[in-house]
Amino acid sequence: TQSDSGRGVFPGLRHEEARLQEQLWAAEEEYRYKRMQTTELQEDIQGMNRTMEMLAQEEKVEHELMKENQSRSAQLKKELDSQNEKIVRATKQCSKLTREIRSANQSGGGRSFMERDIKLREMRTSTGPSPHAAGGEGGPAPPLASIHQSLVQVQVNYCVQYEKL
């Protein structure tokens, strides 16, 4: 029987074959493990790329918002400067008009007729009607005169207020 004699001739063959089978199994196992690691790393990279794209998009949106806010801030600053210039011009004009009115009428302690009239009307309204009021009987002033008086009073108060500044 040759097979018996063949086994005897190569006694280490079975042992070598078992060792090689074990190495093959270990190599295949390592290959599967490395392949799994590679797949996981690729998935991680894809996830990181998606995150990076989202962050880049968010950064772009934030940058645009920042530019819009800076633009709006600059616009509001220009509007504020314009309003301040208008206030300065109005204040100067009120001061000039007040000086002109007072210099045109030196009587009454430097106050104009309108200013004295307004003061007199204020005193009348705080103490009640007098027999010398418009209409001659202590009644209310005619509607147009009342509106005119209120308008003049507002204008003078506005000018006097800004003159003090």
The major pleated sheet works out as: none
Distance between the termini: 129 Å
Return Rg in Å: 50 Å
Mean pLDDT: 80
Portion of residues within helices: over 70%
Question: What class do helices, strands and sheet pairing give?
Answer: mainly alpha
Strand content: under 5%
Number of strands: 0
Total helical elements = 4
The total number of structural domains is: 2
The gross shape turns out to be rod-shaped
Order of helices and strands: HHHH
Residue ranges: pLDDT <50 for 5 or more in a row? 132-136
Description:
The protein has two domains: 11-90; 105-131 and 142-165, no CATH class. It has four helices and no strands. 83% of the residues lie in helices and 0% in strands. Residues 132-136 have low confidence and may be disordered. The chain has 165 residues and is an all-alpha fold.
Q: Can I get a quick summary?
A:
With 165 residues, this protein is mostly helical. It folds into 2 domains: 11-90; 105-131 and 142-165, no CATH class. The chain has helices spanning 2-9, 13-104, 113-127, 143-164.
List key phrases describing it.
165 residues; 83% helix; single chain; mainly alpha
Any chance you could write out the topology, listing elements then pairs?
Elements: H1 2-9, H2 13-104, H3 113-127, H4 143-164
Helix pairs in contact: 2-4
